[in-house]
Write a structure and sequence with these properties.
heterodimer, A: mainly alpha, Helicase, Ruva Protein, domain 3, 3 domains, 8 helices, B: alpha/beta, Glutaredoxin, five-stranded mixed beta sheet, two-stranded antiparallel sheet, elongated
């Protein structure tokens, strides 16, 4: 998060400089376009730093300590964005995901425990927002389906194995077969 | 016996087709069941759009009669699509409609109402979407049916069109009105 903060400050400073120089542009008309923003290494460093920024930095949140920041990151990956179906609110850029991240942060600041935060979102958006669905009658099928599948597979395999096994023919059957073959000659 | 076994794969395939067909068609995966059905409308204290200077509204203003609470915004094209139907409902049934101006520019919202007509008793301004989160809103428009005690009885995501009004809202409102009359007769 320290990195994020220094980068966001750096960005503000650079923007400031860029605006200041933009006003003075007529006198610098002959300079290459890139010169207005600084040197290549600066640009590269900023690009690399920007690539490292997490959702919290995008939202402009600053956490005082790494532990809280980590807790926030962990929590927001636990919730599914209601609008986007297959994204967590951590990775989604949808406005509703921004609102939910802000809600998570507000609840954290109010001292809510992780379970309180889960309950808070579940009460409003239903089980849908939880990537880890609760165990209750409507989700029994979901939870038990791997077990059901496993039992089915074991059952089918045993049946197939039994069908494949060839029993030794009885001695009298062998005798009869030999007699038949001899008669056919 | 062995003949019958030949049909096992075909039967399994048939079952799979039916299950997948039902799974992919019967339920729209973008529609979430509302977690707030039969729960009280969440509390709020928000500015009133185009109200008296400094005027605010709270949950108490929803109580007393059955109402629609409509979450809308000028940036939402579907909200424009349903606007005419809301106007018709208000004009023909007299049902109270309360608006939530959701994450919207209030100036644009006022212009919208001046231009397209205003079916709302009043609008509250939910600028940052916090009331939206409390309501489990995930996309405008959403329309809640709230009874006289402030309990959410139904929620519709998407536009309120004549079909939705006839099939989803009208029967439920009739049922609620019936219950209110029974309660009044008892008094």
């Amino acid at each position: 998060m320290e990195v994020a903060r220094s980068v966001s400050l750096g960005w503000r400073r650079t923007r400031h400089i860029a605006e200041g120089e933009a006003e003075a542009r007529p006198s610098n008309a002959g300079r290459p376009a890139l010169g207005r923003y600084g040197t290549w290494p600066t640009c590269l460093a900023m690009l690399l730093a920007a690539a490292c920024l997490g959702a919290s930095a995008i939202d402009g949140f600053d956490f005082l300590d790494a532990e809280t920041a980590e807790r926030y990151q962990r929590l927001i990956t636990e919730f599914r964005c209601p609008k986007c179906l297959n994204e967590s609110i951590a990775s989604s850029g949808a406005p509703i995901a921004v609102d939910l991240r802000r809600t998570v942060r507000r609840l954290m600041e109010e001292g809510a425990a992780d379970d309180d935060i889960r309950d808070h979102l579940q009460e409003r958006y239903g089980d849908f927002v939880l990537y880890d669905p609760p165990f209750k009658p409507s989700t029994w099928f979901l939870w038990f389906s791997p077990l059901i599948l496993l039992v089915t597979v074991v059952f089918v395999f045993r049946r197939v194995a039994r069908l494949g096994a060839v029993d030794e023919p009885a001695p009298e059957d062998l005798d009869r077969a030999r007699r038949l073959l001899r008669d056919a000659d | 016996m062995n003949r019958a076994k030949l049909f096992v794969p075909a039967t399994l395939f048939g079952v799979l087709v039916i299950v997948l067909y039902l799974g992919f068609t019967l339920r729209d995966p973008t529609l979430l069941p509302s977690a707030l059905l039969d729960k009280p409308f969440p509390g709020f204290d928000l500015p009133v759009l185009a109200g008296a200077p400094g005027e605010r509204a709270t949950r108490d203003r929803l109580l007393g009669e059955t109402r629609l609470v409509n979450v809308w915004a000028t940036w939402c094209p579907t909200c424009l699509a349903e606007h005419g139907e809301l106007m018709r409902i208000r004009a023909e049934t007299g049902l109270s409609i309360v608006g939530i101006s959701y994450k919207d520019d209030s100036r644009k919202a006022r212009q919208w109402l001046a231009h397209y007509g205003d079916p709302y008793d009043f609008n509250v301004v939910d600028l940052d979407g916090d009331l939206g989160v409390d309501l489990g809103v995930y996309g405008a428009p959403e329309t809640f049916l709230v009874d006289a005690e402030g309990i959410i009885r139904f929620k519709h995501v998407g536009d309120v069109n004549p079909g939705v009004w006839r099939d989803e809202f009208e029967p439920r409102i009739a049922a609620l009105k019936g219950k209110d009359e029974v309660a009044e007769n008892r008094l």
